[in-house]
Amino acid sequence: MTSTHGSATLDRERLRGLAETVTGEVLTPGTDGYDDARHVFFRHLDQTPAVIVQPRDTDDTAAAVAFAQANGLEIAVRGGGHSGAAHSTVEGGLVIDLRHLDSVEIDIDNRTARVGGGATAGAVTVALAEHGLVLGFGDTDSVGVGGITLGGGVGFLSRLHGLTIDNLLAVELVTADGRVVVADADQHPDLFWALRGGGGNFGVVTRFTFRLHRVEQVLGGMLILPATADTIAGFVRHAQEAPDELTCIVNVMPAPPMPFLEPAQHGQLVIFALLTFVGTAAEAEPVLAPFRALAPPLADLLQEMPYAGMFQPEPDDYHPVAAGRNGYADDVDGAGAQLVLDTLTAQLAKPEVQMAVVQLRPLGGAIARVRTDATAYAHRQRALMLNVAAIVSRADELEAQLPWLETLKAALCDGTPGGYANFVYDDGPGRIHDIYPPDTYTRLAQVKAQWDPDNTFHRNHTVLPAV
Ligand SMILES: Cc1cc2nc3c(=O)[nH]c(=O)nc-3n(C[C@H](O)[C@H](O)[C@H](O)COP(=O)(O)OP(=O)(O)OC[C@H]3O[C@@H](n4cnc5c(N)ncnc54)[C@H](O)[C@@H]3O)c2cc1C
């Protein structure tokens, strides 16, 4: 008997064999839990895999890879399911959903942690907080450690402690030929280099080992200012000039209807910034003074808190329909900031645009102190990352957003190429060379040829094996 879904025709006997081999769940359309497991973070990325395997250990993971290969099924590997490019789901293929590989083993004395390939950033952050330890991921607790780490990892602590990959010590992964290998500075160093920025191109990561930092308290939270060309340009400049202890994520967006904002401010364009200062309130005071002097803050919610307090839990039912564009710039001047304001004002006037936002992330600091060729994340010297995004209510409204997203991004980036794997959506095949400049791409292609010559793992920003 066979079961047909999407492009795959599966033999039920073989499926039963897989279910008997693995200790985790094997879900197919119609089985309990399949529909829940099918969905990813973005609501419009709605696909129907033929099989979803939820491994409980490395052997299960290897069995899932082997099953997919034996049955000609395309593989999608899922950590936290936040890819904006549908990389962690696949129509008619096999999803390896790592949600059960969520262990966090902390070695307090050596300040290291071994983290399962399917853990989430928030869960790891909370586990570390119990010991006064931190590791920087991004800004959202439900993002998977798997995806964010393999792409680089830009977050609340990046200017002080670098990208997530700058704190990565070792990786255990299941390769395309079913081997379980450990890559670190001594074992398979080329593979370890490639895994730090090269995404899911090389196998399924079942465990990461990270270096941790001791940070008990930060001064952090939201600072909301009116958005004008001067405040935006000034905010970014101050964030770039600040000591590394301060990392800022600067969003220009309409003010949400938050209770601490005057009703008249709701919907007005504001600078909605998330600031993390590693140190005390007293130490932060002079660093923050220039930001507060730009304009009277509409809300100043900065406070001393454990680092884990920076991660606000999201509602489980938050699944946006969104499009985004990503790039790098050196700064934003007054003209660039005015363009941001004009473009957002024009787009937000359209009834289908629920949210339009420009996010500016001043980089530098510890990120820039790592050599450009030390990892597969190559944009070490870029001063500013930018994301331009739109949220609409229906998938068929997304395409109309792309031209303005592209135009605004190109104007702010001043035409310079560059892209960050974790924020590049499905922008077309040429973008791979923005994410990986020529030398990086060539080296990645050689590593790919060694570890995944048949391109088994291609639901990612795919590097083709060198020939
Ligand atoms: C709301 C939101 C906030 C974000 N904030 C930040 C941020 O602050 N900083 C930042 O750097 N990024 C951020 N991102 C981007 C995020 O890092 C990427 O979307 C990342 O790929 C998500 O990882 P994931 O495991 O959740 O995604 P998934 O969709 O599960 O995976 C993404 C890619 O990684 C691969 N992958 C995942 N886990 C593994 C694994 N264990 N082994 C092998 N391959 C794997 C997948 O196959 C896929 O190609 C954000 C994204 C969203 C949606």
From TrEMBL:
| InterPro entries found in the cross-reference section | BBE (IPR012951), FAD-bd_PCMH (IPR016166), FAD-bd_PCMH-like_sf (IPR036318), FAD-bd_PCMH_sub1 (IPR016167), FAD-bd_PCMH_sub2 (IPR016169), FAD-linked_Oxidoreductase (IPR050416), Oxid_FAD_bind_N (IPR006094)
The molecular function GO annotations come to:
FAD binding; oxidoreductase activity
One Pfam family linked to the record? BBE
Annotated Gene3D superfamilies? 3.30.465.10, 3.40.462.20, Uridine Diphospho-n-acetylenolpyruvylglucosamine Reductase, domain 2
Query: Where exactly are the transmembrane stretches of this chain?
Result: none
Listed A to Z, the keywords are:
FAD, Flavoprotein, Oxidoreductase
Cite the FAD-binding PCMH-type domain residue spans from the record: 45-215
Under the heading PROSITE patterns, the entry gives: FAD_PCMH (PS51387)
Cofactor(s), names only, from the UniProt record: FAD
State the similarity comment: Belongs to the oxygen-dependent FAD-linked oxidoreductase family.
Q: What is this protein called?
A: FAD linked oxidase domain protein
